[in-house]
Amino acid sequence: MNNKASSFLWNLRQFSTLIPRDKTVGFCGPKFVYSNWNPRNHPGNDFDNRIQSSRSSSTYLFQDAFIFKSGNDGFPTKGRSTLTVLTVDRLLCPRRLSFDSKHSVVFVGTLNNGLRKVNFHQEVSDEDVLTKEIKPTPISYQKLSKECNSLSDVLDTFSKAPAFPSSNYFTAMWTIAKRMSEEQKRCEKQLMFSHPAFNQLCEHMMREAKIMRYNHLLFSLHAMVKLGIPQNTLLVQTLLRVAQERINECDEKCLSILSAIIEAMEPCKNVQVLQAGLRILVDQQVWKIKRVFTLQAVMKCIGKDAPFSLKRKLEIKALSELDRFSVLNSQRMFEALAAMNHRSMVLLNECSKIVTDNVHGLPFKILINILQSCKDLRYQNLDLFKGTADYVAATYDIWKLKQVIFLLISFENLGFRPIGLMDMLMKKVVEEPESLNMKNIVSILHVYSALNHVYKCENKEQFLEVMASSVTGCLHHISSEHLLSVVFSFCLMNHFPLALVNQVLQKDVISELLASDDKERNVHKLHILNTCLKLDDTFSYKAIDLLLPQMPSAPLDPNTKVAEVLSSLLGGEEYFSKNVQLPHNYHIGMGLYLFSFFSDKRLEVCGSSLV
């Protein structure tokens, strides 16, 4: 009898070595309490160690079953119970290490040469109350972000009861941070880095990176980048490497997250490798992408140096989805094409029509992004530009002065003169000159002189006098470069305010301009200013005593390959000439003389530029 009891207790002890201490396994009445335990959630990660220790005993761990076996191992079996515990499902899988509690646990025992079989069955919904109290309940990042008001609150929650996956804590912190102001966000980030549980959370994240879902991994990496965790840390670089290794698990949702991560991160070796892997993946799966938003996210992150064939595939895919484009999709397409430096005239024309028809209500940031993308792509669409300018002019009162000036600078970069909007701004400047600061004055004068807008305006003189008096009022506080820019713009508009011109011609001011970092640009402006003053009959001008440096000579012809091709096509260099210098600082970059086969006239094709 003692042998039977000792054998039973020995087997029971071996069984207990495979069960975590914080779980309940026991015999209580007719039921066997069995927890739905997940080894990867166990604190200390000692699951593998227990398995290794159990292999040396009479307990064997197979991949699909736990088997406690006693028999044919040198011990007498007569009168001794044999205990067998089976689990049907696969236990040791690569990433999903969990028990399936839908199956029964079967105990088979031979007592006194008799066979007895007892089934103990437990469903997940009938989990023991004690097990519920011990097992940490997984919590979603949505719930965390609602219950917590700061980043430190999330870390406090983690320190009390860590739950898998750790990515939810990072995602919750970024969700909370998005609701904060910039100053509050800065303070909260400092508290986050100094929190005692932050390092522990990072360690959990690195351990779980290879077993958590791929989308959870990407969400947490994106949150880390946005929270300002340094990119060169072991945590971020580890997650980048794991993301590379598991990139084949990427579905369409993961594609958009991964694209946002690459776009937000600074270039480094691991980011470049991840971007290269994304390009290969997109090249294979581009036709399977269903959402336009995902397609545009991918277009923004593949880079300007992506293969042309991949850019062309993305363009064709976008053209096939044109009928499904929303207004927002059309707005974002400009930025997506500019990000990968691919000018698709069909896409741009169609999106321009949609944007022009729905321009009312567009936010300032989107308007600026569209105009900047048009500049980057060298795309001109007068209907789009005119519709945007007319909308801003019609709703002028809802815009800040700074926003209007930014829009005018964007139009000036595109070479477009929005007459109605510029007239409206001139009127407001004359009525409220006190609303201007020096930066606004410099920008306004630059735009109006570059676009030559005041030439035919009725209130030209009044506008120029108001601007000149505004600058004169703060003459002693203005920098030398700003002063030169203001006087230069006035000269281009044929207006010479005496106080400002005399101030910029002072020797100390000119010496300061020639000693600045932007010397070449300042010399260029001073030469043009000097020439304008000499040509003006109404202004009593005294020559600048200080000798200005000579303007840089015209650059040598940069189109060497073009010259070589022309020489081979035309049969020699005698049919064209390069870098032809003309009076008054004009030069012809390349003059090409072609002989007509059908007439005796010689045609000259040339381009000229002002130095």
UniProtKB/TrEMBL annotation:
Coiled-coil segments: none
MF annotations from Gene Ontology: RNA binding
Name of the protein: FAST kinase domains 2
Any GO BP annotation: mitochondrial RNA processing
Cellular component annotations (GO), alphabetically ordered: mitochondrial matrix; ribonucleoprotein granule
Species name: Microcebus murinus
Domain FAST kinase leucine-rich: 441-514
InterPro entries per UniProt: FAST_kinase, FAST_Leu-rich
